[in-house]
Write a structure and sequence with these properties.
two-stranded antiparallel ribbon, single chain, symporter activity, 4 strands, flat, mainly alpha, PQ-loop_rpt, 2 domains, LC_transporter
Length: 234
């Protein structure tokens, strides 16, 4: 038997076995969520990225498999190969992955499944933690807070403080203080907000208070460059 005669059934066998293995991997998690009636412990951002990734993968593999134009362009770029190495099982896997990852993602929606949803709040905590970091770095790199509204920070800081105060007041009227720890998202949001707002306030009123107005450098797409009191930074 020629090598090509062995190659075709071998690649098909291996391809469909990997498709079955990878496809089967999508079932334990939603089944576990269903059994527990909760998505606690599962990161919603993982599933968000998963859905996006598999949608893109399905588009890519489908284009390489079905589009004559794209297959021709592929051949022109890879002259040693007659056609893309995309198989029907790749399409089947990608389509199944989109369906199952989307299904699992919907388990974070309590109105559909009736689960206890905690992870959405934890994702908000993560987003809040991450969103402030680039601005802290930009202010540090520019040695200036010019263009960054301190008014929004003062209001943000006030909101964070009052949010914690309300949480403490509400918890004080209960038999114990479990109302504070029982609302970790609100507690975390308030503390994270206060922490970063204090950094911004320190940058604006202490560290960079003598910094002059910035100027726009058109050569780098409008990115502002700081202009100190004694002249432009090198």
């Amino acid at each position: 038997m020629h090598s090509t005669e062995l190659w075709v059934p071998t690649t098909l066998l291996v391809g469909w076995i990997y498709t079955l293995c990878w496809s089967a991997s999508f079932y334990p998690q939603p089944l576990l969520n269903w059994q527990r009636k909760s998505t606690r412990g599962l990161a919603i951002d993982y599933l968000t990225i998963n859905v996006l990734g598999f949608v893109c993968y399905l588009i890519s593999t489908s284009a390489l498999f079905f589009s004559a134009l794209i297959r021709h362009q592929y051949t022109e770029r890879h002259a040693a190969f007659s056609k893309p190495t995309v198989r029907s099982n790749d399409i089947a896997f990608a389509a199944h992955a989109v369906i199952m990852s989307t299904l699992t993602y919907t388990q974070f929606w309590p109105r559909i499944w009736g689960f206890r949803v905690y992870s959405c709040g934890h994702v908000k905590l993560l987003v809040t933690l991450v969103k402030y970091m680039p601005q802290v770095w930009v202010n540090y790199k520019r040695q200036s807070t010019d263009g960054w509204s301190i008014e929004q920070i003062l209001l943000d800081f006030s909101g964070g403080v009052l949010s914690i105060v309300q949480l403490l007041i509400d918890a004080s009227f209960q038999p114990d203080w479990s109302g504070v720890t029982g609302n970790p998202v609100k507690l975390g949001l308030g503390n994270i907000t206060i922490f970063f707002d204090l950094i911004f306030i320190t940058q604006h009123y202490l560290l960079y208070r003598h910094t002059g107005q910035g100027k726009v450098d058109e050569s780098i797409g409008g990115t502002e460059q700081p202009l100190l009191a004694n002249g432009p930074r090198p």
